[in-house]
Amino acid sequence: MHPLQDVQKPGVEGTKTIQVRVNGQIYKREVPIRMLLVDFLREELGLTGTHVGCSVEGRCGACTIVLNGNNVKSCLLLAVQADGADILTVEGLGEPDNLHPIQEGFWEKHGLQCGYCTPGMMMSVYNLLKVNPHPSVAEIREALVGNICRCTGYEHIIEAVQYAADRIAAMPKEERDKLFSY
Amino acid sequence: MYPAPISEYFAPSTLEECLDLLDQYGNQAKILAGGQSLIPLLKLRMADAPIIIDINRVIELQEFGEKFLESGNRVLRIGALTRHKTLASHPLVLSKYPIISDAAKYIGDVQIRNRGTIGGSLVHADPAADLPVPILVLDSTLRLVSKDGERTFSADEFFLGLMMTVIEPNEILAHIDIPSPQPGTGAAYYKYSAVFGDFAIISIGARITLQDGICQSSRIYLGGVNPRPQRAVETEEFLNGKTITSEILQKATDVMVEEVIVESDMRASDTFRKVLLKQYGFDVLSKAVQRAKEEQI
Predict the structure, then answer these.
(1) Residue-wise pLDDT tens digits, B48-94
(2) What's the domain range around A68?
(3) pLDDT tens digits, one per residue of A96-139
(4) Does any CB of chain A come closer than 8 Å to the CB of residue B43?
């Protein structure tokens, strides 16, 4: 028999209390150990901007968040692993009347059609522009390999990233640092 | 999609604590490192873990850098928790061990490389994974530890078959030691996959030591073609002792295509894999020779 087919009976449901900082706010919750971080954000905290796409193997990237300074897929982490972590989700990026330059880029360059992949896309762009303020087209494409969009063909997304990069580059250093505090 | 219920979760911060837990729970527990393979397997109910031991806080597993062993030999020590991101971008890897970044930089995508670890990849032993091949090519040794003591294996002894290694339920992989290469050594790795960052349809790793243009020794492994990476011994023997020219590398590639037993699966036929091997085998050997001149493995 294939070793992966060796399915055993499930264990008993255990829980654990965790404390996390999400978009600057501290939350303390008791969660099932098997709860995924993405479900914790959506179901427990009501932060439904982080999406669930493929839901299984972490291919689509719609659930991408920034965890302790790195963009990761929140469907491939247990919520209990985030105990003590600092998290940024799309809700923490900007406000409707004060968009983050990355959000502005997607708005101005029409970097979306249905918008389902957009929050995850923007969290990956956040991590890209934090370390590489002037990415080439190839670098943008490589940074977004883990975020799948089935509408746009990516062209407008790349223009959105370039728009954001230009906007940010034109800002004074202090303001730039404030945009990338995670 | 949820994993099945998990009854206990431990996040030890020292190796000693971790080994105590493994000793106590052994078979029932799964070690959670990057989780980029384990979490999907738990969701699909292909793996079962009533108990999770999260090792992400264990400092002893995070070593990374060159060091001298008691024997006086210098090695590159890679702690099992070293992330793919580090292997893909660390200046030490890029300047002296580029075969490792060749492999690490095309694992999955940015998000996966931010979480995934070398220890997880090696212990998981997916035949199409990227890191086993360079680890084998560089004649690395793997240190396993448990409450009962330590065991050291060569990479070749470590991998047994499809997702099977010598590791026991109470053991954990602590680190990988990559020996310092002989002068005049170069190495390279290439993967062909259907989609950027996907698992290998075929991957090739080669290490060649040159002196005055003559091949002193070589090591070649192929990934993605068999239940575990396969060594191309006849190709190595063909190369050893020969003056390396483009023509010899071409002939060596033919030997490799002839020698290697490849299988068909849902991703590719054996015929297609041989075509890829003929195409890319030569490129990898050439790159290894070029790097030998620059002392880069």
Answers:
(1) 899 999 999 999 999 999 999 999 899 999 999 999 999 999 999 99
(2) 15-91
(3) 999 999 999 999 999 999 999 999 999 999 999 999 999 999 99
(4) yes
Neighbours of B16 (CB within 10 A): 12
Q: Mutate which of A36, A68, A76, A139 to test chain B, going by most B C-beta atoms within 10 A?
A: A76
ipTM: 0.92
State the fold for domain B59-179. 3.30.465
Report the C-alpha gap between A116 and A109 in whole angstroms: 17
The domain B8-54 is placed in CATH, from the list 2.60.40.10, 3.20.19.10, 3.40.50.720, 3.30.43.10, at: 3.30.43.10
Q: Where are the beta strands (DSSP E) in chain A?
A: 15-22, 25-32, 64-67, 70-73, 86-88
In total, how many domains does chain A have?
A: 2
Nearest-CB residue to B5 (from A34, A81, A127): A34
Task: Determine the residue among B39, B81, B111 to mutate to test chain A binding: the one whose Cβ has the most chain A Cβ atoms within 10 Å.
Answer: B111
Give yes or no for a contact between A83 and A59, defined as CB atoms under 8 angstroms apart: no
Q: Which residue has the tokens 């099992």?
A: B80
Please state the pTM of the whole predicted model: 0.93
